[in-house]
Structures are given as structure tokens and as C-alpha cells.
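New to this. Help decode both lines:
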Amino acid sequence: TYADDDRRHLYFSAADYIVLGRKGSTPYSASGQMATAIGYRLPVFAQISEMHLNHGGAATLYRNEEDLIQLLKGADRTKLKQMSLQCEHVAQQRDWSKIAKQHEELYVQV
């Protein structure tokens, strides 16, 4: 479901984790849901798709509903905290100021 930009923070701030599935052939990352969740430091459970993303370990992938149910049953507070810390690491690596600096350094070399 789409969340307006001005209300998105309400949903993501209230969540303990995010579950991303797929409908049809649209990958779950097509509109940035995974990146947004990682930005909010939310653990992600994502269905495996043909387009395998480099998520830096911030997402736990599942194949089908049975896999998802088992993963969610095992997702206690300790596991979710570990996943959230991994999201923090990935978010820091993908921070726009850091990426901009890397691009700037590359341009200087060219």
C-alpha cells in the first residue's frame, strides 16, 4: 500500500519490522521500499526474487509463505535488534554524503 510522503514516517516509526513480498513480476525494490526500511533501521523480511539485490545483510530472504512464518516465529526481540543493527551499518554505508564524497574522489582521479 502506498503511503504519502508526509505520513510515511508514521508507519515506519511504528513498525518493528517490514515484510516485503512480490505481486506479479514487480520486484519488491522497484519503488524503494527496502531502501526506505533500511533508512529507518527496520529489519526486513523479503521474498526472494529473480532480481537479487545487494542488501548488505540487512534483509532476511524467504522463498514462500511457510518460510516467512518460520522466520517471523523466530524473530524475537534479540534477533530483531541484531537485524536493526545490521540495517544501521548498511544505512551508514549508503549515506548520501558518503556516496557523494566517493564520487567526488573519483572525479578528482579522472
